[in-house]
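Quick one, T. Sequence first:
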Amino acid sequence: MPAGKLTSRRTGLGALALAVLLTCFVEPALALYPKKGDSAPHHGVRDARRKTIQGIDVSRWQGEIDWARVKDAGTRFAFIKATEGGDHLDPNFKRNWSEAKKHGIPRSAYHFVWWCRSAKDQVRWIKKHIPRDPDALPPVLDVEWQNDSQCTRKISRELALAKITEMLKGLREHTGKKPIIYTDINFHEDVLEGELKDYPFWLRSTAAPLAKRYARDRWEFWQFTTTGRVPGISGDVDRNAFFGSEREFEAWRQGRFDIGSRKWHGGEPKIAEQRALPTPAGARAPGAAGGTQLRFAPPGRIPPARTAANRNE
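Structure tokens:
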């Protein structure tokens, strides 16, 4: 074979190999949930996309949701906005709440805190509107600064923690379940860093690993994009990942495992769970996630320490 043609073929094979290699690095983020997507994906959150248990969070801004299609896309849980401050009920909450249950999607109600209202008023409002469904996931307290709302007030760290503690207590008394705390980078640094370590945290980071953005040694849920695309929902929707195993997720739902303190309350494994070995090429994802073939890539590098220069999204 003439040298020119041989070189051309080798070049072609090299390009093909490179394309396959690049695909391996991209595909793990998509393979588990092939029906879901992202209108503006970010490479920095690829680790979240590899988590087996993923879900969404929704409010009135997602409009009327086709929950049958959301379920069919492999959605494992849904955080649904219920209340805000001391006088606002999300107009789509009741429908979203009942439809998610109808289609077998574990769901949690969340309350958005207003710093201009007393904790007592907000607990009263929560108890009036958030159902006490025994099969619901624990509720969520959403705490962040309201920079773009009518209530732009920033209170002291001490007062914020006092209000949060009172509302967490109220939510727990009302539902009988330990609440989850949702927060973002700035509020966590200003108020929550080093606090309330016994509670499960749901953290937002849409451009980098959580370890790079938060001074925390663990987390339970990661909101990794606000531009997700999910069948049954028009436009963008937030997508989230659960940090833990299938056994831990189911035991948490049943009240046998505290994901905040990582303590078992019955039915715990007799021996420590072992990490699963890498799945062989061609193995399939869990049926709930769509059962698509997976491609695996080497793990990413350990992210650099969080600094003042890189902490913001």
